[in-house]
Amino acid sequence: RFAKEYDVKKILGIGGGGCVFEVVNKFDEGKYAVKRITVDPSDDLITKALREVRAMAQLDHPGIVRYNNDEILRKLNSKKRELLCNYSLTDWLSANTSSDSRSLLRMKSWFKQIVSAVEYIHARNFIHRDLKNTFQPCNIMFVESDRLKICDLGIVIERKMENEVEITLTRTGSGTEEYMSPEQRSLDCRLNAKSDVFTLGLILVELCVVM
Fold first, then answer.
1. In whole angstroms, what is the distance from residue 156 CA to residue 54 CA?
2. pLDDT at 196 exceeding the cut of 70
3. Given this model, what pLDDT does residue 44 score?
4. What is the separation, in whole angstroms, between the first and last Cα of the chain?
5. Which residue has the higher pLDDT, 32 or 68?
6. Catalytic residues, which ones?
7. Which of 95, 139, 148, 163 fits a 20 to 30 Å CA distance from 83?
8. Superfamily per CATH, domain 2-82
9. How far apart are the C-alpha atoms of 129 and 116, rounded to whole Å?
């Protein structure tokens, strides 16, 4: 089915969760990014992929990658989403290491875009848990020269609210260690949306501090 519907143009990235291809749909000639994971149907990666698909289907925000559809085939998972510029925030920061290139106005604008997307995720009762910038694969990508989008919602979880008060959730530590909040690192991981806020602080430092 994949070969019948898409022409593969190039590989955009390879990670532990699978391979992402730039493709052209043979029917509507639209360009998309398709993530393919070859796993056993009982594998945890299928659960993770389905979680990401369901979360993305509920989120419609200019700062979050747009989900188109999903195809679950035997021993193969494919997720189709909009094609972003193959350039991450990590790439830009690595190429622009002078304070002159990182103007306060630009960094403030970019950070506001990221915060807006995370705020929307929280408002829709999700916690991202794996925001990251300088570790591959980065999940903050450019759409245009000054527009950013968050992608990769593979370990997103739902927030639990009771009488408009957020309930602390218990989960084993998940995410990228360097970006985890202290509570996320704990084996008896009790976290809420504040965990994402902690990670946003780390990303802000990376934007503003030239190493």
1. 10
2. yes
3. 62
4. 47
5. 32
6. 130
7. 95
8. Phosphorylase Kinase; domain 1 (3.30.200.20)
9. 16
Annotated binding site for ATP: 35
Give the whole-angstrom CA distance, residue 14 versus residue 136: 10
Residue 184 token pair: 């996320």
Pairwise CA distance, residues 72 & 88, whole Å: 28
Q: Per-residue pLDDT for 147 more than 60?
A: yes
* CA dist list (Å): 108 to 34, 66, 141, 194: 31, 24, 16, 21
**Residue type for 27, please?**
F
Structure-token pair, residue 168: 């602390």
Phi-psi region of 75 (alpha: psi -120 to 50; beta: other; left: phi over 0): left
**Average pLDDT over the chain, rounded to an integer:** 73
**DSSP symbols for 180-203:** --HHHHSSSEEE-THHHHHHHHHH
Which positions make up the binding site?
35
What residue ranges of the chain are covered by domains with CATH 1.10.510.10?
A: 89-208
Nearest CA to 90 among 200, 210, 207? 207
Region 103-124 average pLDDT: 94
What is the phi/psi pair of residue 40, to 5°? -70, 140
